[in-house]
Write a structure and sequence with these properties.
Helix content: 55-70%
Oligomer: single chain
Shape: rod-shaped
Number of strands: 6
Distance between the termini: 155 Å
Strand content: 5-15%
Length: 309
């Protein structure tokens, strides 16, 4: 740090005076200048003392004036010296402060560099993390798009299934209605079947009674013709008179029970079916009902007793 400008003492005709100049700025550089100034003042004072040894008429007055001026200059110089010492102390303190500030600045610069390097490293790490997050975000967006497409597909399939379910429900409703109609028809058919079964049972009873009556009449007719010495034989060419062979057909029990037919000499299953059912082609009914005694349709013998179903 530099000191402010101060007046410099110069030699003149009337003694010591100031000239434009600067004191040294700091430390021991100001002391040689002040010592030189004091030596110059002592020299001037010695010269003035020499002149005062032989003063003129106005010599004492001039001497007193110069002495007063010199005292003022000395006081000014002492004040400047005190100020210079203070400034020197302040300069020393400021220099120490500057050194400390420079050290702190250097440390701050080092810390700033280290912090900058750490910040740069941190920024690089954050940029890498940002890149990874961007990649993850891109992957998440792609997965979200795929999920949305899957959801749309599932919604379409769900809608199709809902339509299928609605159609199935409509079919089920129709099926239920049809089933209800079928049950109603089945109930009517069951009722009709029961009625027809009753009528069939009644018809069978009547048929059995009629067959029993036919056999009774046939037996009576055979007995009558036997007593008359002649019988009625039924052949393929029509009706002719022939002798009657024994025995004759007889009923097996009361009306409503099974009918038993006794085979005569010229009987066949077809003739018996034509006589009993009115249709010669129903002979298999008789054959199936008598398989325990018949080995074949023509295995008939005189006097064999057949069950008429």
């Amino acid at each position: 740090m530099r000191l402010a400008a101060h007046p410099r003492p110069c030699l003149g005709g009337s003694g010591l005076h100031t000239c434009g100049g600067r004191l040294p700025g700091r430390g021991d550089a100001a002391r040689p200048y002040l010592t030189l100034t004091l030596l110059l003042l002592c020299h001037l004072m010695t010269a003035d003392v020499a002149r005062a040894a032989s003063p003129g008429p106005d010599g004492y007055a001039q001497l007193r004036a110069d002495n007063a001026a010199l005292s003022q200059q000395v006081e000014a110089l002492e004040a400047q010296l005190a100020i210079a010492n203070k400034l020197d102390a302040q300069a020393s303190r400021l220099a120490g402060l500057a050194e400390r500030l420079e050290a702190r600045l250097a440390g701050a610069e080092s810390a700033t560099v280290a912090a900058g390097e750490a910040a740069a490293t941190r920024v690089d790490s954050l940029n890498q993390q940002l890149d990874r997050l961007a990649e993850r975000l891109h992957d998440a967006e792609q997965r979200a798009a795929a999920a949305e497409a899957k959801v749309a597909e599932l919604q379409a399939r769900l809608k199709q299934q809902q339509l299928s379910v609605e159609e199935a429900l409509m079919r089920a409703d129709k099926a239920e209605k049809l089933h209800a109609g079928l049950e109603e028809s089945h109930a009517r058919l069951s009722t009709e079947n029961e009625r027809l079964s009753l009528e069939l049972a009644t018809a069978k009873e009547r048929q059995a009674e009629a067959m029993q009556r036919v056999l009774e009449l046939d037996g009576q007719l055979a007995a009558t013709t036997a007593r008359a010495g002649a019988g009625i034989a039924i052949g393929d060419d029509g009706i002719s008179v022939a002798p009657v062979r024994d025995p004759v057909a007889v009923p097996s029990g009361a009306s409503g029970g099974p009918v038993v037919y006794e085979v005569r000499g010229d009987d066949t299953l077809s003739r018996i079916a034509a006589k009993v059912y009115g249709n010669a082609s129903d002979w298999r009914r008789i054959f199936d009902a008598n398989r325990d005694v018949l080995n074949g349709p023509d295995d008939l013998s005189l006097g064999m007793r057949l069950i008429i179903p």
